[in-house]
Structures are given as structure tokens and as C-alpha cells.
Structure prediction request, 339 residues.
Amino acid sequence: MQHEKVRDILIAIGQQVCEKVHHSLVHQSIEELSAVHEETAEDTIYQIDRDVESIILPALSRHAAELRGIILIAEGIGDQETVVLPEAMPAEATAIRILIDPIDGTRGIMYDKRSAFFLAGAAPNHGPQTSLLDTEVAVMVELPTSRSVLSDTFWAIKGQGAHGFTRNLETQVEKKRPITPTKSSTILGGFAQISRFFPPGKDILAQIEEKLIATLLPEPPENRAIIFEDQYISTGGQLYEMLVGHDRFVADLRASLYRRLKSEGHWIGLICHPYDVSAHLIGMEAGLTITAADGSPLNPPLDTTHPVDWIAYGNPTIRAQVEPVLQQLLRDYHLTTKE
Prediction:
């Protein structure tokens, strides 16, 4: 794989998406941006999602031949789960699989509430079994609200660390953006949370979080907020908060929760998919620990439908404190198949 070339292409696409979204926020109404374009098996595709398709496909098509063929796997792009570029090339002959979430955090950004993110990961094509741990290049580009002219871009090439810069959307000036995961040895006094932004089962996740905190901090000081939480409805946003040291721990366990609820005859809600964690390599290269629900390496297939749980720890010390307690609670609440 031409790692630097792939990185530069994905950054350029992310920046074009950023500019398109920012322009739309300034010049279109919330009603226009939040209009439903279609319902898919993975998620609802809004007009703001569809608007960026005209950027991604042409950009990748221009470079597909020189990259020796691309299989694009993306939410809301094209009529099928995968798109082969150049179109005449057999899928098995392509060199690269690229997993993209054009706008991760659509609901937050289309109401101009909070930054969303363009997320992308590229892996050598090992056929349908290609998975997240095969990713060798990852990029994430912040899509800020209309009130901000600053956009952060983070990227990683496997084995070369994580890097970032901030771009001013008005002047195009770029400035280095440090990536600094927390060095704290405890979650006490910091942001740490289990994601529970969509029903059903929010009560179950809250109970797990309460017991986790009570076990880790059995005698908390009175009249103090011992833990803060941030229910950022964007997986990319959650990863961003971990990368810059704002958050110390986050767990998204909706897939396991809904598997339990479905077995009990209840309805299930929206879950995380592989494209939501397509920039996972950046976190790993930055020194975060990111696992599946059972503590094993996070390694879903590169598709748009596989259910994904993920847990991120800001550093090894926090993982050593939190993980044993959390794993026991997941067993107690029947959210894991590992006994």
C-alpha cells in the first residue's frame, strides 16, 4: 500500500467534506439538512449525508488506478454496501479496502449543536475477511459547527504514531495539534462514561455505571462531583475526546445490551457499526487501549452492518483499575458471552 498517498487522499477528501458541511450549515436551514433521504439497514440517511456523496466517489475514482484498485465500504454511499473502483476491475483484484463514515455524528451537526467527524480507515485487501486490525492508514477530520472556523485533523500510519493539525477554514492556515491522552491514574474527578444516548435499556447501562463507580470509589468525598460524563452522540467525537485527554474512559456496550434485550423479546435500538470505529488505528497509535466488550482486541469485519461494542481506556493504569470490575459487571448483567 502507498501509505502516504492514501493518507493524503483521505485527508483531502475529509477536508472537502468539512468545507461542504460547513457551507451547508451556514446557508441551509435545519429543516433542509435534517430531511430524511432514505432508511437503510444500518441507519437513517439524512440529506446532509447524501450531499457529500458527490465528493467522495469522484475523488477516490481519480486515484483508484494508481492505487491499484479500491473497494469502498461506506455508510450511505452508492446503492450497494461496497463500490469497486475502477468500476471495471474485479473486486478480488483490488489492492485496498477503504472503510468510510462520511459524517459520524450526523444528528449533532445537522442541528448545528456539536462537531461531527469524517472517519476513514484503509487496509490491504484480504478479501471479505479483511478486518479492523488490518487497517494500516486512518484519518479523522472534524466537521465543526457554523460558529467555529477551526477544524482538527488526526491521522495515523501503522507503526508511525498518531499526528494532528488544526486548520482554519477561513485562512487555510494549519497549526500542529498535539495528541495527548490522559496521564491521570484514576477516573476520579474526570470524564468517564458508559454510552447510553439511545433507548432502550438506558436504565441497565446506568446501573452498570453506578456499580462500577461505587466499586472503584467506595468512599467518595461528600459534596463533590466525583465523576463527570459526556454523552457525545458520535463515536468519532468520543475517540476525539480520548485523544486530546478530555475523557479518561468510555464504553459503548449497546450491541451486547440489545442482544440481551432481543433475547428477552424487547425492541432494540441503534448500535455502533464498523464504519463508526474506522479511525480506531489513530487511538491505538496514540497509546489508547481500545478493546471489544470482552476485553479482546477490537476487530470487526470491514462492513456496514456488523454490531460493534468498544471500550477505550486512556492509559494502562486506568485499564488495570476499571477493566476487571467492568468485566464482572457485564457478566452479572448478562452482557457478555465470556464467563
